[in-house]
From TrEMBL:
A Pfam family assignment: RVT_1
Protein name: ribonuclease H
InterPro entries in the record: DNA/RNA_pol_sf, Rev_trsase/Diguanyl_cyclase, RT_dom, RT_RNaseH_2, Viral_Replic_Matur_Polypro
Compositional bias annotation for Basic and acidic residues: 21-32
Residue spans of biased composition, Low complexity class: 33-43
Domain Reverse transcriptase intervals: 24-206
Family membership noted in the UniProt record: Belongs to the beta type-B retroviral polymerase family. HERV class-II K(HML-2) pol subfamily.
SUPFAM superfamilies: DNA/RNA polymerases (SSF56672)
Annotated spans, Disordered: 20-48
Top-level taxon of the source organism: Eukaryota
Organism: Mycteria americana
Length: 484
């Protein structure tokens, strides 16, 4: 059945003709005798045997005014697709999307170029111009709205639909293709994939709402040789960095590799770089799938945060009744930079919680409840009326921390706050549910010692602290004393 659906799905395109054909991009340019000209283009043969004409419009891009972007951010698109938790998928790709869009006659002179001594002007939307992706994306999106397209996600000319059954996905894909053809776009039959339960979209493997690193990508990364230059190191980091959310402590692991990419330092591949390079290749092998992002009253979003020696780390997990460990939604890390290196341990823990809440909000949304599990019990500072006197962060920074964390803590039902400070190493056998009477309470001032009951006097503690500046550095100490 699945083969029959896929075959019928592709049969829709048997009569589609590529307006460019397999020729050398000859239909998109006209000879002219104007005075404008950009550097000569490069004509490239693609891996599939076709031709692609490229022009370097760097000079034009520098003087082109900005344009509001209509293209979704890659991470936003990934989070959106994770939230669908679909069983079946289908994808397609528009052929020669830019060259399918004609340029207005008054705009053509600015895209003049020379090639082999002859001057030409483009009459189609060119590749290499910085606003081409945005314009193309917007025109395709307009076609969807006019054609009442089914639910889908679009990244410029890449499209994906999903559903719970192959038949549902087939009908959605058929409708999408009909809208594209009516709008004047062409589709290559080889670019149509699905319906399938496992598919690649924008280089990411999707299955049951989970995004995974494709096996061929893992093999490519593990087979990489150690870089021999700054440029090769940057290229390696670019390949691996795309998958950073799948790798715990990514930023801390690759920190030695970034050091050799600095322009002010000489390239030196030492023991630290070799160790980091081999470690990140091992980590990519053991990477886990992320998602799906689920919603509902029974879904618990647990955010683990910690302030390490070299930087904060945080990771987000989701758990529903019946699951033992839950599903990871992402791993993040960063190094301490600038004034953050001087933060107190308390401030570093709060910084980790703050950055974790920001990242988690992008994944599960601002209305979802978060169970915050910091490594140390530091969040009481967030609910005090004043900033501790030994802090290093600016007052404005503290205000920012307090605003976000306390705001998220009070979202939803007051008896079930959005963020609960839990100090735990959660055992698998322990009940994961939150009791409805749990609340985040503001810190209160303790009563005078002479007003405490007799038993409480025996365990009461007095604290004192002092601070002074020694050679432009803060030096502070604290004392805890029991009178009994």
């Amino acid at each position: 059945m699945c083969w029959g659906l896929a075959h019928a799905y592709r049969a829709l395109f048997n009569t589609i003709q590529n307006p460019q054909g397999e020729e050398k991009a000859s239909g998109s340019d006209d000879k002219m005798t104007g005075t404008m000209a950009t550097p000569a283009p490069a004509t490239e043969r693609q891996s599939n045997g076709g031709w692609r004409l490229t022009v370097h419009y760097r000079g034009l891009n520098e003087v082109t005014p900005p344009l509001s972007a209509a293209v979704l951010d890659m991470l936003e698109l990934q989070y959106e697709l994770e939230s669908k938790a679909a069983k079946w998928y289908a994808t397609t790709d528009i052929a020669n999307d830019f060259f399918s869009i004609p340029l207005a006659a008054e705009c053509r002179p600015q895209f003049d170029f020379t090639w082999k001594g002859t001057q030409y002007t483009g009459n189609r939307l060119p590749q290499g111009w910085k606003h081409s992706p945005t314009i193309c994306h917007g025109l395709i999106q307009t076609a969807w709205e006019q054609g009442e397209a089914p639910e889908h996600l679009q990244y410029i000319d890449d499209l994906i639909v999903w559903g719970d059954t192959a038949e549902e996905v087939f009908e959605k894909g058929k409708k999408i293709v009909q809208i594209l053809l009516k709008a004047g776009f062409a589709i290559k039959q080889s670019k149509v994939k699905g319906p399938a339960q496992e598919i690649q979209f924008l280089g990411i493997k999707w299955q049951d709402g989970c995004c995974q690193i494709p096996v061929d990508v893992i093999n490519k990364i593990t087979a990489m040789s150690p870089p021999t230059s700054r440029k090769e190191t940057q290229a390696s980091l670019g390949i691996v960095g795309f998958w950073r959310m799948h790798i715990p402590n990514y930023s801390l692991i690759v920190s030695p590799l970034y050091q050799v990419t600095w322009k002010k330092s000489d390239f030196k591949w030492g023991p630290e770089q070799r160790q980091a390079f081999e470690q990140i290749k091992r980590e990519i092998i053991h990477s886990v799938a992320l998602g799906p992002v689920r919603a509902g009253q029974d879904v618990k979003n647990v955010l683990y945060t910690a302030a390490g020696e070299n930087g904060p780390t945080w990771n987000l997990w989701q758990k529903v009744p019946g699951e033992t460990r839950g599903q990871p939604l992402g791993f993040w890390s960063q190094g301490y930079r600038g004034s953050k290196t001087c933060y107190t341990p308390t401030e570093k823990e709060i910084l980790a919680a703050y950055e974790g809440v920001r990242a988690a909000s992008e994944v599960v949304g601002t209305e979802a409840q978060l169970l915050l599990a910091p490594r140390l019990p530091v969040l009481g500072w967030m609910f005090k009326g004043s900033v501790p006197s030994t802090h290093h962060a600016a007052d404005a920074t503290w205000s920012k921390w307090v605003a976000l964390i306390t705001q998220r803590a009070r979202i939803g039902n007051p008896s079930c706050p959005g963020i609960l400070e839990v100090i735990m190493d959660w055992p698998e056998s322990k009940d994961f549910r939150i009791s409805p009477e749990e609340e985040v309470m503001c810190a209160e001032e303790a009563p005078p010692y002479n007003k405490l009951p007799g038993k409480e006097k025996q365990c009461a503690l007095f604290t004192d602290r002092s601070c002074r500046i020694v050679r432009k550095h803060w030096r502070w100490k604290a004392v805890v004393w029991s009178p009994i």
